[in-house]
C-alpha cells in the first residue's frame, strides 16, 4: 500500500486525497495548525490524521502538496526540514521558475520532485480533473499509479520538471482572465443599461476560443485595427469607474503584431513568435 501525506486538505486537496484513498492508498493529513474547516474536510474525505508532520513523513512514500500558490515554497521547505526521502509532488498553481526552485531544493536533499498541475474542478460525480505530471519518468509513473481508476485523471508528460506548471499557467492565463474579463464586460453593460443585450450576444460566441489556434493569424493580421479599439474600450471603462487594465494590456499585446497588418497567411509559428520580446528570442 502506498502512503501519501497530503498538504493540505483544502477544497481541492481533500477531494483529490479522497480519490487516492478510494484507490487503495493510505492518505494522511496533519491537523496541527489547520482550521476547523480544513479538519472537517479531511474527516469527510476519510483521510487519516497524523500526530505531526514528522510522524506522517516517516511513514510516507510520497507527499502531495496542494496548497495556495503563495505557500508552495514554504510547504516544500517545511517538508525538506525532515528526514523524508520519498517523492515530493508539487501540484500547485505556480510558475515553472518556482517549480524548478523547489526541484533544486529537493535535489539538494536527495529527494525526487514530480512537477504536477491540476486542471479542472475538484473530483466528483460530474467532474474529473486532470493531474498533469512531469519530471523523472519512474517517479511520475508511481504518482500516476496512485490515481489509477479514479476521478483524478493522471496525465504524464514526456518532459522535465517545470512543464506541468507551464501548462497550468498557460491554461489558467486564458481561463481565469476570461472570467475576470466577463465580469468587467457585464459591469460596463449594466452601467449603461444594456446587460440583457450583452447576454444575448454572448450566446452567439464560440466556446472553443482557446482551441481555435487556426484563427490566431487572423488576429495578428487585424491587430492594427484591434489595438485602437482596445484603447477606446479602456477609455470607456475608465470613464465608468471600472478597471481598464485588461483592455490596456490587450492593446499592448496587439502592438506586437503591428508589422503583420493584413498578413492573413502568416504561419502560426511566426504569429506566436512575434509575441516574444527581443530578449526572449536571444
Features:
282 residues, alpha/beta, Rossmann fold, 2 domains, 8 strands, elongated
What's the helix and strand layout?
Layout lengths: L2 E5 L3 H12 L3 E4 L6 H9 L3 E2 L3 H6 L3 E4 L6 H9 L6 E4 L5 H13 L3 E8 L10 E6 L1 H10 L6 E4 L6 H29 L3 H8 L13 H6 L1 H17 L5 H10 L13 H6 L9
Parallel strand pairs: 1-2, 1-4, 2-3, 4-5, 5-6, 7-8
Antiparallel strand pairs: 6-7
Overview of this protein structure:
This protein is an alpha/beta fold and 282 residues long. It folds into 2 domains: 158 residues, Rossmann fold; 114 residues. Helices cover 48% and strands 13% of the residues. The chain has 12 helices and 8 strands. It has an 8-stranded mixed sheet with strand order 3-2-1-4-5-6-7-8, sandwiched between helices. Helix 2 links the parallel strand 2 and strand 3. Helix 7 packs antiparallel against helix 8 and helix 10 packs antiparallel against helix 11. The N and C termini lie far apart (49 Å).
Q: How is the largest sheet built, in terms of strand order?
A: 3-2-1-4-5-6-7-8
Q: What do we call the CATH homologous superfamily of the largest domain?
A: NAD(P)-binding Rossmann-like Domain
Query: Per CATH, what is the topology of the largest domain?
Result: Rossmann fold
Overall pLDDT confidence: 96
- Put simply, the count of helices is 12
Order of helices and strands: EHEHEHEHEHEEHEHHHHHH
Strand content: 5-15%
- List the domain count as a whole number: 2
* DSSP helix fraction: 40-55%
In summary, what is this structure?
With about 280 residues, this protein is an alpha/beta fold. Helices cover about 50% and strands about 15% of the residues.
